[in-house]
Structure formats: structure tokens, C-alpha cells
Amino acid sequence: MSKRFPKVARVPVYTPPMAQPLPRDFGAPLTLHEWADDDSLAGEFDRGRRTDEEVATQIHEEIVSWLMFFFQTWLKDTAGRVRGSETKFAVSPDKGRKPDVSVFLAGTVPSRLAKVVTTPPFIAVEVLSSGPADQIRDRIDKLFEYAAFGVRYYWLVDPDLRAITIYELGGDGRYVVAFAASAGQHPVPGCEGLVLDLDALWARVDSLPE
Question: Span 55-206: which CATH code?
């Protein structure tokens, strides 16, 4: 006589979840072309490594938005273009940068298919963040990098000081201060007919909700 065994409920076997793959840029060295070709890689490129992406506040974004409209209005009857912070520039063989705002005059606009831009813009703008690393990168590192790349005008916008400094590339390949102000209306160096209204800019910032 065969023995009858009680039925035992089948307990599902626990299968641990698969580990999520690490992002491609996690601690791994990159080439400039890998950084340029992969849209998933945030941040900038510095000597084989991806830099941390700065944390932009709404004040930062409001200033960027205002400046883009400001430049677009000036260029509206020309073939010039304005680009935002996702435009990647190969400023040197081992440096990739993404200015907050870039201005191209007619005849210098990059190809519509370009993933990385190798020609300098007429104007590159960086809106400063409060972090020490971001301050050093924008105030010091990029001052030399953009000059070597050939950016004619480099704008630094400081939301905390409410001031704008414009550097102009000299014949010796170094920047000199062409303009600095925190209030009032001023003609913009190198941009015929363009007037910068700083009072309007800061008023726009002040209109943001608390």
C-alpha cells in the first residue's frame, strides 16, 4: 500500500531583485567623444571625468530665461541664434563645457546635427551658483578655458551680489574687464544697439513667489 503524504502548499521562492546597473559615468573614465555623444551624461567634462551637475535655483533659471529672451530679441532680424545650457562645447581636447547661455552671430551657428560644438560662441554666459566648487569653476577655470577657446565675450552673472561682469578677449588671448555694473541701463560692449537694463532684470527676479 502506498503511503499518502499531506499536500504541502507551494511557497514561492524568493528571488532578490536584480541590481540596477550603475550609470555609465559612475566613477568611470570617459573620453570627450563619449561625453558628447551620450545625452544621459549630465554635468561637464574635465580631464576624463564627468563633473557634478550644479543645482540650479529658480533665481538661476529666471536669470537664464530673461537673458535668453534678451539676446533673442536683439538677434531677431538676423541669422544669429541663442542656445541654452545643454549645448556641449569641446573647449579643449580634455575639457567639455556647457555655458548657461551661448550667443552665436550669423555665419557661426553650429550645424543642426552637431552633438558637440567645436567653434566658440560670440558670448558665453555663466550664472553663478553659491557652491564653492561652482564658483571656482566659473570664476577661475572657465575664465582661462573660454579665453583659450576663443569666446569673444564672457559674462559672469552674480545673483547674490546682483552684478554682471563682462570680460572681453584681448589681442593677447587674455580677458580684460569690459563692463561691470549692478544697476541701471547700459550699452552692451560689442553688441551694437543692445542695452542691458539691470533694474528690469532684478525686478523680474524679485517678482518670483516666496
Answer: 3.90.1570.10
CB 81 within 8 A of CB 68: no
Contacts for 136 with CB less than 8 Å, ≥ 6 apart = none
**Cα–Cα distance list, 92 to 19, 27, 52, 88, 143 (Å):** 37, 22, 19, 12, 13
Domain ranges for the chain, please list them: 55-206
Contacts of 114-118 with C-beta under 8 Å, sequence gap 24+, read 115/36, 115/37, 115/88, 116/32, 116/33, 116/36, 116/37, 116/88, 116/89, 116/90, 117/87, 117/88, 117/89, 117/90, 118/89, 118/90
Q: Is the dihedral of CA 30, 143, 88, 41 positive or negative?
A: positive
> What pTM does this model have?
0.82
**Residue-wise pLDDT tens digits, 42-100:** 788 887 777 777 777 999 999 999 999 999 999 999 999 999 999 999 999 889 999 99
- Helical axes 58-75 vs 198-206, angle rounded to 10°: 140
